Amino acid sequence: MAVSDEQIEDAMAHHDFFGGVTAEARASLIELGRVREVESGSILFQHGDRYQGFYLVITGTVHIYRLSPEGRMLVLHVMRPGESFAEVPLFEERADATYPATAETLADSTLLFFPAEAFLSFVDANPRTALHMLGQMSKRLRKAVRQLDAVSLQDVQERLARHLVEQVPTVSDDPDTPPTVELDIPKSVLAAELGTVPETLSRALRSLEDKDLIRSEASEIAITDVQGLRQLSREG
Amino acid sequence: MAVSDEQIEDAMAHHDFFGGVTAEARASLIELGRVREVESGSILFQHGDRYQGFYLVITGTVHIYRLSPEGRMLVLHVMRPGESFAEVPLFEERADATYPATAETLADSTLLFFPAEAFLSFVDANPRTALHMLGQMSKRLRKAVRQLDAVSLQDVQERLARHLVEQVPTVSDDPDTPPTVELDIPKSVLAAELGTVPETLSRALRSLEDKDLIRSEASEIAITDVQGLRQLSREG
DNA sequence: CGGCTACTTGACTGTGGTCAATTGGTGTGG
DNA sequence: CCACACCAATTGACCACAGTCAAGTAGCCG
Hints:
The structure is a homodimer of 236-residue chains. Chain A has 236 residues and is α+β, with helices and mostly antiparallel strands.
């Protein structure tokens, strides 16, 4: 059940960073990576662990989270095929770099692992690629700011509305049937991604349903009023 | 009342990015910058404005914030001499880049402004400097994560405690008198930096005082029990 | 002295977190 | 094939943290 090279190539081609470099550079980058196959629920690294390197998702799902002392979870990111994570410590003080959060698979997954040393040597030899990396980091930073904004300036309902709107495919393949968001993660994780708990998420979903903005059934969420949702997520 | 070259040199030398490059590179970088002197309360750019370039603080204070539709403020950053801000959009899609937040001076300030085009050409000609930039961005990202963590996992009192602990100078110049944090910004800004409102900050300060962890008087906050504060900010 | 702003304090309210019980779906074993 | 166990999700009751509104105080400048 090894992954095919096409899958790897596919994931890399769609990647913000890997997709931006030349084909030859990409080829030599693949050489650096080690394939890791892990089952659902595996912890790749934990908050505070000594930094080893970063990952690229080929198949599966990974969530990056932090835990409060009391055990509440805040999900920073849910990573899907073609996305990479944990590059941040690459460029910090080398000696005692640690992972800033915990990474755990939400499904059986195939990952490409890039050891810090090897990757840094590559960047060192190809300084131009650092620019692509900067683009990547900038996006992350902007996303972090939006998340921060959302958590402290919007209530749960608005955050949920925003999240749903962002999930809706921009091009509607069928103008009549309402666009549908299929949840491929447990609701508890979505809750933690919105900075809340499952109970509150449940009530927020119900509340949006009562307002006829969505129709929710198990992990299928049909958006019946995209405009209304968008408006809710912007204005108070 | 123009700033001296020493002040500029000083600010740059202590900067994470500018301080990391060679002296000659730094010299040519100064050439790129334009000095701007602005009085307190000036808005340098607003959330959504077309991106022009980034700033380095020589003297004064600048806060970077976002506003909710209802007008509540979230302060992302308070910038002091030797710090730079608004580099993020440099490396994003060039055509329609915008500022992700608003920047306003909290005091009469002197800034060095770097136009995007010129600076990018420099990085292009000196790709190695991109690595320093990456280090810079990484720190930002990590800070953003900690802020996110704080806002959604800690209550106001804990966030305040953490903030105060971080302000305490690491080396105590006098072992007997308690370390003191001098607020150089209005409390309303500190409140927004902690993701709350002035009233709540006021109560949080009082509450820490009642616990004999601090002694607060106007903008002087004496830390009487650093250990206790630290503990409060970690554990629930 | 008057008026302005920053900050504080009090009373009230609401969002959302906690705890607990219930439902529902899924997989395992008798 | 049903029974049971287990986990995810929902619902209800309760409560507390913190935001709002309003009044009051203190400091500062004209």
